[in-house]
Each structure stands twice: as structure tokens, then as C-alpha cells.
């Protein structure tokens, strides 16, 4: 049996063997926001936060997250309670087909948690594992900068805030 | 009399989309009580047409007739409804339209989202149906409130009468009881509140929160997952293998031999995947086992030289005018096969029970998907229901129905509800590829750079027969015996080889400049490998053969490449205008920054004119695209930011093709398999992009594809500026 924390809740799976985390989350826990893109860790569509870092879950056996905290796009924010990165994404009109965007947003939120004010080059490095075939890269960069600015402003004005400014 | 006469070839050609542009069918905007309207009609709703419902709770429901695959059509068409209904776009609930004859794309003759046609096709019909609803609601309000019609207006999603606001729902009952209005006046462009101004994508929130449903996300009770081990060579079939051993693997419930592979059906995707990986299958060696990219390239080049082919378009004296030209230039270009590689690999779910077939799929035509499911389930079309989803990218790949056919076959054979999931390897190695081609362009020019004669010649496979082969099989289900359908569809290959030139093979070679004399010649060289629509189709390669030769001539004659293009676009003011705008915004007349080199290209794709300046740098023989300035004229701009986004999208897609895109065959099998050897552009390689829009009152044209064709020639022209080397083979590779 493998135990881990999924979007804040303790969960366990039995008999999962080497099943990648992606398929446990999608098929067992029925959270469909994280996507399958390549099955080889090359495109980032399956990205989830594992202990705060963006991980390629299509090649990560579920056994590797024993005891870890896993956050999917559903755990980051919801339509009624958007994470600042999601809010910036909507405002910059980033998504096109939208399929890669949960993975992009996960990677962006991991970047901003580590580095609240990334340069263009730092954004390139952090986001180069996430492919977007619609070519939304320019807007992804913009949205990350917008989110960084909103988080900084928010942190200054409302240091006690528990939700909107969270990462 | 031939069988083709019996089954009305023209009708089939229309159904299969073979007869495109110019065919315009009417859109039914009246309520048709004889056919089923969208599934979710609620009691008491006002249903003025298949597109719209106003419910008693005042919600407005729009059944968007085009599939959303990233191009922004949900937002675009909803903006039109919003405009004529004077209602904020965010207030309108949007649903995918189900299969219904009223959702036929009037440009294509069937319900299909392709060819950048949605906005062009629906700009007036969608506004008309909303305007009709507006007038119906006004009339109903004037009756119920017993006031003059002129005292009732729609503003900001409300009905305003006698200084009071009323909800739409208040008049739904009355409006349902009076005669529909068919010819309400449309708003003038000067009155637009949302068209040309609304920018926010209406699907952005769902897509930023992981709540947007794609085909792969569909989960129906009891659904099994299937993975198909496919013959590495197109057209091959399984003979025997170790199915029996694999059948006993964990979670495996069924193993089925299909025409093109062996399917493993299991309880979960991972169990199906593991079992499919353990399959060892022997394949019947298909005809295509000889296919090799180098041989094919040689064969196309030789065919272009030695075979007569078919004559296509011609103006004036055609190629004969080359003889009278002061100077002639000619160049031959080589284009590779390309895969689509949309982010969501193909998938489809199907359930057949109690004489009904349900399918769940994100696809460019629900209608063709339904017909295909009818054929493979053996059920009448009316017993098939398609449940549409968002498409995780389409780019032409989801115009095909191979995923539907195999899923329904599998559901029928096993009696299980099943979802077939493609891997990335399946996707890259079993595509309907953008055809490889060899194109030669020849120009006759005078010293001042006016092109007096233009000859464009292409050798390669044609796309349309491969689509019609699939589609005719599907749409004729139940109408003619399968053998007749097969016979008819196979004849189409011959039609395009011997009777007419497939317009998708030669589009973009001759349309843009004045060319008083021009001619097209086409030689069909079809290896038998499936080829298909790929974002911007023929333009994706043909723009390159046009725009690099024009550049080459300009430089040889000492004429600025922008001036060269302007000089040859005297009769095309819209093309000229985008050239001038891109030149001005890029600072073309001033030298580029140190270490940067610029190239120019312009192209008209499906009525949308796009000019681009690519600014590149070259280091150690590697090309980096640093900045792109783009000018676009797509007629009336409905959502400016979506037009900009689509240009950005086409540019990035086009840079991938220009720098990396290549599918090779070795003994009939595709060499590339995933993003490591079929790379696509990543964020660290993506340029700054600026998009400038031409203000226009021309009818709108599409934006999903036209951003792509100019970028590769613009880059190649910049490479010439940087290195003096003319690259005529894609992907671009500096040899030094």
C-alpha cells in the first residue's frame, strides 16, 4: 500500500505496482485535470507538484511518492477560488486548445514559489520542460510576470492573507 | 452507366468536402419541428433556431456549430450572438452543438470545422439568428407590456421598456407563441459594442483550472481502456502472435485482432498499456514496406522532370510567356512529411447497448464521426449519438475518423464500453501526414522587377482521396453496399491523378501577385502512405516556394525585397497593405541590430493576408528566431486579441516546421516516435512576437491557419541575409 497526500487529503492506493502517478490520479482518483501527452517525461502535460516541485508524473511510479504531498491543478485553485497564477493565466488570455495548460500552470506556480520575481531567462529555464503546441509561450511569460507582480503587491498589502496570495 | 452515376458523384464529393470553396449552402435559421433539436431543450424554452435557446430562467444557450480546438471559435461566434442580442458574451451559456442538419458549415456542405472557415461561414447566419431573436423578444415585450415596439430595446442583456429593465425570461412564453421573425436587420459596424472589442476567451477559466473536458477525460460507468499495437507500416495487418500469453496478464479482459493491429482491452489504461507492450505480433508485409524517404524524394524530383502531369490554373499565355521575359529564375524546393503532434493524443470512447451507440470524442466533425460509428456498429445513423468535447489541438488531424472507426469496431466486437487511447508513439507514427513534395517555381522578370510570367510545378501526393476514402465509406453506410462505396472511394485517387488537380496540392503557388501570365502543373506521385490536412494544408509548403524565389529575384536585381513585393501587388491592395504595415512596424528600412538578420514574406491563406518579418541570429550554424513582426488583414476583426493569439500560434507552429519538422520512412515505418526525435519549439526557443491588425470592413476570414505559411520563407530569407546561403530544403539546415 502506498500512502501520500493528494491535494491536502491523505490517500492510499493498493496493488498499484509501478503504475505512474498520473494514471493513479486520473483513473483511480478521477481527477482529470492532469493530462497525458507523451508518456516519456518530455512534454510536461502531466506535471504535478510533488513536495512543491513540478514533477513529470507519467514516468513517476506511484511508489516514489510514498509520504509525499502531491498537488494537481484541481488542488491549486478552483474556478471560484483561483490561484494567482490561474488568475493571471485567464487575464492574459493564455489558453488556446488548453490541453497543456494545467501542466504549464503547475510548473509556473512551482517557479514562483522558489523565485517570486523571475527574469525572462529564469522563466525559460523553469518552463522549458512544458511543451505547448498552440504556441502560447509569449503569453505564458507575460502571465508569469503578471502573477509575480500580483503576488508581490498582495504580499506587501495583506501579509496575513491565507488564500489569495498563497503559493 | 457507371456506378458513380448511380450514387451521384457530385453529392458524394460535396459530402466528402472535395468540392470546397465556392459551394455555399443555406443555413436554416427557422425552427424545424421535424427534426430533433439540441438534446437539452428544456420545457418552456424559447427556441428560435437550432443555435439558440432562451430559458424561462432567462439563461441564453448557444449551441456553437464549430469545434473548439484552440482557435477561439467559442468566443468568436458567441461574440456575434452577444452583439446582435446586446448581451455581454459572458452571460451566454455555450454548449458544443450535437449532430443536427442545421449545424452544417455553409462553406463546406457538411458539419465540419476546417479550412479556417468558421468565422467566414457563420459571420452572417449566426448574427441573423441572434438578430431574429432580438426582434422576437422586442415584439413579445411590446405585446405583453402593451406599448409601441419602438419603446422596447435590448441593452446589456436586459429588455428595456418604459425606463424599466425586464429579464428575457419574462417574455419567453409570449415569444414562443408568436410567429418567428426571419429577416431582422443586422447591426451596422458603427454600432458594434462587442465585435472588434471583446477579447476575453470564454473558455479560459475552464482551461486554466483543469475543468475543461477533453475526449481523454471522458469517464463513463464501466468503461474499459484499450491500447492498440499497430502495424509499424501503414496498410499492414496482424497475422499471429503471442495473444494467448498476454490475455492472462493482469487486468486484461479481451484481445481483438483488428485490420491494422491488435487491441488489448483492460480494466485500466496502465494494465492495457503494459499488456500491449508485451504483445509480439507478426505482420503481413504490406505493399508500403518498400517506402523510403530518400527514394521517394528522388522519385518526386524525377517525376517533376519527366512526367507530363496535369495542367492546373492558367492565366494569359501561361508558361509560354517565360520565353519573352528579359530574365528568368528557377528554383526547386523539397518539403518533408510532417506529423501534427497535437498535445492530446487521439482517443475515442464508445458504448453499444440496446441497439444504440454512444461515442465520446473531440473531433473536427461530429457528423462524420456519427456516420462512421453507424457504419462500424451496423446501426442506423439515428441510433448513434455523439457526445462532443473540447479538442486538445486539431490542426487537421482530428478531421479524420480512424480513431472512431477502431473504437466502435472494438466496442462491437467485445460488447464492452471502451475507450481507445493512443500513445505519443502511435500519434507520431500513424498520422495522416502533411505530404512530402517537390516544388519548382520559375519566374520571368524585367529589370524593374515586374514578374511577367510565373510557372509553378509540384510533384507529390494528393490529400483529398485519403479523406474521401474514409468519409465515403462512412457517409454511404446503409445507402449503398460497402463494395460499391469502396469502389467509388478508390476511384477518387484516379480522379485526382488523371482528371483534376487537387486544389489542396497547389493552393498558394500562384494567387498572390499580379502575374499577368501564369500556369500551374501538377504531377501526382503517391507512394500510398496516408496523407492529410495539416495546418494551412498546401499553403504550408507552397508559400515557401513562392516567397523564397521572389526574394532571390529581388536580391539578384538589387531591389529591396519589400519593394519587389509591392511592385508585384499593384492589383492586390490588401496584400500590399500588409506588406507596408509589416515593413513599417519592423523598421525594415533601417538596419537591424548588430548580429540580427531580417527576412520578409507575405502570403494569402484562405482570404487572410499575412506579412511577416523574421529577425534571426545564427550561431555555430544554428538558427535562432529572435523576433517576429506580423501584419494581418482578416477583414472585420471580431476578437482582436484572439486574432493576435492565432498569429502567434501559427508563427510558433511554423517555426517548429521550419527548423525541426521532418518525418522519415525507413522500410515503410516512421523513424521518429516522440518529442525527443520529433521536437517542437519550446519556450526558451520562442521569439518575441508583435502582431499588427489592419482595420477593415471586409467580410471576416479565418485566422487559425494563415499565421503559419509566411514564417518559414521569412526565416529562410533572413538566413540568406545572414549567410548568403539559399536554403531550399525543409527543415532549414545551414551547411556553410
Describe the structure.
The complex is a heterodimer of chains A (167) and B (736). By secondary structure, chain A is of the alpha+beta class. Chain A has 6 helices and 5 strands. Chain A has helices spanning 21-28, 73-76, 84-91, 101-114, 120-127, 137-157; strands spanning 2-6, 9-13, 47-50, 53-56, 69-71. A 5-stranded mixed sheet of chain A has the order 2-1-5-3-4. In chain A, strand 3 and strand 4 form a beta hairpin. In chain A, helix 3 crosses helix 6 and helix 4 packs across helix 6 (137-157). Chain A is globular and about 45 Å long. Chain A starts with a strand and ends in a 10-residue tail after the last helix. The model of chain A is unreliable at 159-167 (pLDDT under 50). By secondary structure, chain B is an alpha+beta fold. Helix content of chain B is 31%, strand content 22%. Chain B has a 7-stranded mixed sheet with strand order 10-11-8-18-15-16-17, sandwiched between helices. In chain B, strands 13-21-20-19-14 form a 5-stranded mixed sheet. In chain B, a hairpin with a 5-residue loop joins strand 2 and strand 3. In chain B, helix 10 packs across helix 13 and helix 19 (640-659) packs across helix 20. The termini of chain B are far apart. Mean pLDDT of chain B is 92; it is low at 1-25. Chains A and B meet through helix 1, helix 3, helix 4, helix 5 and helix 6 of A and helix 6 and helix 19 of B.
Amino acid at each position: 500500500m502506498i500512502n501520500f497526500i493528494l491535494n491536502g487529503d491523505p490517500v492510499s492506493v493498493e496493488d498499484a505496482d509501478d503504475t505512474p502517478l498520473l494514471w493513479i490520479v486520473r483513473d483511480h482518483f478521477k481527477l482529470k485535470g492532469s493530462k497525458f501527452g507523451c508518456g516519456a517525461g518530455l512534454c510536461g502535460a502531466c506535471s504535478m507538484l510533488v513536495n512543491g516541485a513540478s514533477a513529470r508524473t507519467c514516468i513517476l511510479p506511484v511508489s516514489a511518492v510514498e509520504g509525499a504531498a502531491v498537488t494537481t491543478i484541481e488542488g491549486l485553485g478552483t474556478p471560484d477560488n483561483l490561484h494567482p497564477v490561474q488568475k493571471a493565466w485567464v487575464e492574459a488570455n493564455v489558453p488556446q486548445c488548453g490541453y497543456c495548460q494545467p501542466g504549464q500552470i503547475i510548473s509556473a506556480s512551482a517557479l514562483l514559489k522558489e523565485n517570486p520575481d523571475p527574469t525572462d531567462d529564469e522563466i525559460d529555464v523553469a518552463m522549458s520542460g512544458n511543451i505547448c503546441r498552440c504556441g502560447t509561450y509569449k503569453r505564458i511569460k507575460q502571465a508569469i510576470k503578471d502573477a509575480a507582480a500580483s503576488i508581490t503587491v498582495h504580499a506587501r498589502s495583506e501579509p496575513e492573507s491565507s488564500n489569495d496570495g498563497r503559493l | 452507366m457507371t456506378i458513380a452515376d448511380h450514387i451521384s458523384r457530385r453529392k458524394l464529393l460535396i459530402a466528402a468536402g472535395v468540392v470546397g470553396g465556392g459551394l455555399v449552402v443555406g443555413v436554416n435559421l427557422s425552427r424545424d419541428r421535424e427534426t430533433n433539436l439540441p438534446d437539452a431543450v428544456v420545457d418552456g424554452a424559447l427556441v428560435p433556431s437550432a443555435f439558440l435557446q432562451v430559458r424561462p430562467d432567462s439563461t441564453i444557450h448557444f449551441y456553437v456549430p464549430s469545434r473548439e480546438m484552440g482557435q477561439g471559435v467559442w468566443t468568436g461566434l458567441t461574440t456575434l450572438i452577444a452583439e446582435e442580442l446586446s448581451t455581454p458574451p459572458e452571460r451566454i451559456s455555450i454548449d458544443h452543438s450535437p449532430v443536427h442538419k442545421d449545424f452544417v458549415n455553409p462553406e463546406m456542405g457538411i458539419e465540419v470545422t476546417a479550412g479556417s472557415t468558421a468565422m467566414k461561414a457563420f459571420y452572417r447566419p449566426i448574427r441573423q439568428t441572434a438578430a431574429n431573436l432580438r426582434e422576437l423578444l422586442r415584439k413579445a415585450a411590446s405585446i405583453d407590456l402593451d406599448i409601441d415596439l419602438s419603446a422596447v430595446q435590448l441593452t446589456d442583456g436586459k429588455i428595456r421598456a418604459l425606463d424599466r429593465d425586464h429579464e428575457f425570461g419574462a417574455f419567453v412564453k409570449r415569444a414562443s407563441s408568436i410567429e418567428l421573425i426571419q429577416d431582422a436587420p443586422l447591426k451596422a459596424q458603427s454600432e458594434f459594442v462587442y465585435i472588434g472589442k471583446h477579447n476575453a476567451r470564454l473558455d479560459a477559466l475552464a482551461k486554466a483550472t483543469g475543468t475543461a473536458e477533453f475526449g481523454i477525460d471522458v469517464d463513463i460507468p464501466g468503461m474499459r481502456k484499450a491500447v492498440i499495437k499497430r502495424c509499424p507500416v501503414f496498410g499492414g495487418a496482424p497475422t499471429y502472435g503471442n495473444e494467448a500469453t498476454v490475455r492472462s496478464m493482469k487486468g486484461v479482459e479481451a484481445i481483438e485482432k483488428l485490420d491494422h493491429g491488435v487491441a488489448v482491452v483492460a480494466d485500466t489504461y496502465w494494465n492495457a498499456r503494459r499488456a500491449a507492450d508485451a504483445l509480439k505480433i507478426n505482420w503481413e508485409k504490406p505493399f508500403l514496406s518498400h517506402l523510403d524517404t530518400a527514394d521517394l524524394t528522388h522519385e518526386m524530383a524525377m517525376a517533376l522532370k519527366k512526367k507530363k502531369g496535369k495542367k492546373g490554373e492558367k492565366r494569359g499565355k501561361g508558361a509560354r510567356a517565360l520565353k519573352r521575359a528579359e530574365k528568368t529564375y528557377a528554383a526547386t524546393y523539397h518539403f518533408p512529411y510532417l506529423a501534427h503532434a497535437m498535445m492530446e493524443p487521439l482517443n475515442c470512447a464508445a458504448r453499444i447497448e440496446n441497439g444504440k451507440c454512444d461515442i465520446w470524442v473531440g473531433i473536427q466533425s461530429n457528423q462524420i464521426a456519427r456516420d462512421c460509428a453507424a457504419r462500424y456498429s451496423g446501426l442506423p445513423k439515428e441510433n448513434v449519438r455523439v457526445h462532443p468535447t473540447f479538442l486538445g489541438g486539431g490542426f487537421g488531424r482530428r478531421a479524420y475518423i480512424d480513431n472512431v472507426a477502431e473504437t466502435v469496431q472494438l466496442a462491437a466486437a467485445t460488447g464492452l464500453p471502451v475507450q481507445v487511447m493512443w500513445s505519443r508513439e502511435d500519434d507520431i507514427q500513424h498520422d495522416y501526414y502533411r505530404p512530402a513534395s517537390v516544388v519548382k517555381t520559375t519566374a520571368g522578370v524585367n529589370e524593374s522587377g515586374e514578374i511577367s510570367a510565373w510557372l509553378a510545378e509540384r510533384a507529390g501526393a494528393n490529400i483529398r482521396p485519403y479523406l474521401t476514402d474514409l468519409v465515403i465509406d462512412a457517409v454511404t453506410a446503409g445507402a449503398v453496399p460497402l463494395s460499391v462505396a469502396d469502389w467509388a472511394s478508390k476511384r477518387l485517387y484516379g480522379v485526382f491523378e488523371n482528371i483534376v488537380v487537387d486544389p489542396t496540392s497547389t493552393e498558394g503557388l500562384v494567387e498572390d501577385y499580379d502575374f499577368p501570365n501564369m500556369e500551374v502543373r501538377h504531377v501526382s506521385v503517391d507512394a500510398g502512405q496516408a496523407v492529410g490536412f495539416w495546418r494551412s494544408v498546401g499553403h504550408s509548403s507552397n508559400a515557401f516556394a513562392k516567397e523564397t524565389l521572389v526574394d532571390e529575384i529581388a536580391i539578384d536585381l538589387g531591389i529591396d525585397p519589400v519593394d519587389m513585393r509591392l511592385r508585384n501587388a499593384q492589383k492586390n491592395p490588401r496584400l500590399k497593405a500588409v506588406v507596408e504595415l509589416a515593413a513599417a512596424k519592423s523598421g525594415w528600412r533601417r538596419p537591424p541590430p548588430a548580429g540580427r538578420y531580417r527576412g520578409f514574406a507575405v502570403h494569402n491563406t484562405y482570404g487572410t493576408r499575412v506579412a511577416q518579418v523574421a529577425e534571426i541570429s545564427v550561431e555555430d550554424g544554428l538558427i535562432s528566431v529572435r523576433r517576429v513582426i506580423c501584419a494581418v488583414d482578416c477583414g472585420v476583426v471580431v476578437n482582436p486579441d484572439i486574432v493576435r493569439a492565432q498569429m502567434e500560434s501559427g508563427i510558433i507552429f511554423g517555426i517548429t516546421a521550419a527548423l525541426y519538422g521532418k518525418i522519415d520512412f525507413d522500410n515503410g515505418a516512421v523513424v521518429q516516435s516522440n518529442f525527443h526525435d520529433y521536437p517542437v519549439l519550446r519556450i526558451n526557443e520562442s521569439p518575441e512576437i508583435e502582431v499588427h491588425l489592419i482595420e477593415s470592413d471586409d467580410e471576416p476570414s479565418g485566422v487559425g491557419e494563415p499565421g503559419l505559411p509566411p514564417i518559414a520563407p521569412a526565416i529562410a530569407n533572413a538566413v540568406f541575409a545572414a549567410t548568403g546561403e539559399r536554403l531550399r530544403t525543409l527543415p532549414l539546415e545551414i551547411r556553410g
